Amino acid sequence: MDHFLYRDGILHAENVPLPAIARDVGTPVYVYSAATLLRHFRLFDEALSWGPHLVCYAVKAASNVAILKLLGDAGAGMDVVSEGEYRRARAAGVPGDRIVFSGVGKTEAEMRHVLAHGVRQINLESEPEMRLLSRVATEMGVTVPVTVRVNPDVDAKTHEKIATGRSDNKFGIPIARAREVYAEIAKLAGLRVVGIDVHIGSQLTDLEPFRQAYRKVADLTGILRADGHPIERLDLGGGLGIPYARSNLAPPVPSEYGQVIREEVGHLGCEIEIEPGRLIAGNAGILMTSTIYMKEGEGRDFLIVDAAMNDLIRPAMYGAHHDIVPIVETAPGTDRRPYDIVGPVCESGDTFAKGRDMAPLGAGDLIAMRSAGAYGAVMASEYNSRPLVPEVLVQGDRYAVIRARPTLDEMISRDTIPQWLSEA
Ligand code: LLP
């Protein structure tokens, strides 16, 4: 459930009519609902309320500092994968002891930064990384809590670009080698084993792969404890999927996911961490855009909108479906026609949807691409020299720009011409 609903025929974000935001901020623009973000975070929190736990929001999904502050103030921890994300979480007021540092390629500089400023745990992904972290921690005179991300070799049954738990993916260490890796860590100075980490992929719409992975983690917990390692925390990753098309069968909900966790690892007495991103932010955001032209092609009509693949890359990159709806509700009984909804970027891949049935639309009409809150703004670029898309947060009947649209001058002024070219 989200808080983007029609009222009197106009799509609202909570109590704010979206046309008001379009007038004020212009389009394209991302609009987030605070109530939806909080609701989704609390669903996970409640789903794990049977034991000690921390829901660490995956910052990569939507990393605006205002969103992090909203969730952090509600008690969320954060899962970060770079110093940039770590600094965003800290700028939002999230204490270091609620921040988990994940990622396959942490640099020495990033390690030094988080160790100096406080971190809950570092999820290690390889042996060279653990040796480097041991050296850095020792030099800094600290001991850092660590887990190892194990790769359980299960098929997450999701899009190949976002599956991470198969043995041929770059992530984690093979679960079969976990014992020897933990044995080496136990000998390394500056590292303190606290648990095990696993993450098998994103947009999972079936609980079975989670169950398989968590069962393997439970078995491994027993083995590692018998070897003398203090496994007291399990980081079970993110990945629960969301309904992108409202017509689809609904994927499992957080309470069902929490139940699977309880059944598979609840008996171990561990503190549970999870790292959901998409389910918290995805349906809490829309991308609002205006039509520029309606162009009749041969056998198909194109709706050319002012958002493009640089603003929302998911359809071009993963063939992802996003529901696209008019901001002014279509009256019942209105004839619809199929449109290809495309952006202005000079690539055929700049297509949001093909043959989407919509009521006839004209220049300047507003439409919303739904479920765009996760992996939307964060993956935006300036391709075709289109300024980064702004972001707005709505809460109740208030709204605020949480990232302004840069001016074209600001965008261009970041480039510098070398002296030798200016002298000519
Ligand atoms: N933890 C780790 C270690 C991750 O790699 C990810 C996502 C998450 C948590 C959060 O997963 P979520 O709950 O959001 O599924 N850009 C792609 C998704 C990439 C996901 C990357 N890792 C997309 O637009 O579908």
Chemical compounds bound to the protein: ligand LLP
| CATH architecture descriptor of the largest domain | Alpha-Beta Barrel
The class by helix and strand makeup works out as alpha/beta
Q: What is the end-to-end distance?
A: 61 Å
Characterize the overall form: globular
Please report the total strand number as a whole number.
21
Largest sheet: 9 strands, mixed
CATH top-level class of the largest domain: Alpha Beta
In the predicted model, the low-confidence regions spanning at least 5 consecutive residues are none
Number of helical elements: 13
Based on CA atoms alone, the radius of gyration comes out at 23 Å
Modified residues (N6-(pyridoxal phosphate)lysine): 60
Cofactor: pyridoxal 5'-phosphate
EC number: 4.1.1.20
Function: Specifically catalyzes the decarboxylation of meso-diaminopimelate (meso-DAP) to L-lysine.
Keywords for this entry:
single chain, 424 residues, Lyase, Ornithine Decarboxylase, Chain A, domain 1, TIM Barrel, eight-stranded parallel β-barrel, 13 helices, 29% helix, globular, binds ligand LLP
Summary of the model, kept short:
By secondary structure, the protein is of the alpha/beta class. Helices cover 29% and strands 25% of the residues. Strands 4, 14, 15, 16, 17, 18, 19, 20 and 21 form a nine-stranded mixed β-sheet that branches. An eight-stranded parallel β-barrel has the order 5-6-7-8-9-11-12-13, surrounded by five helices. Strands 1-2-3 form a three-stranded antiparallel β-sheet.
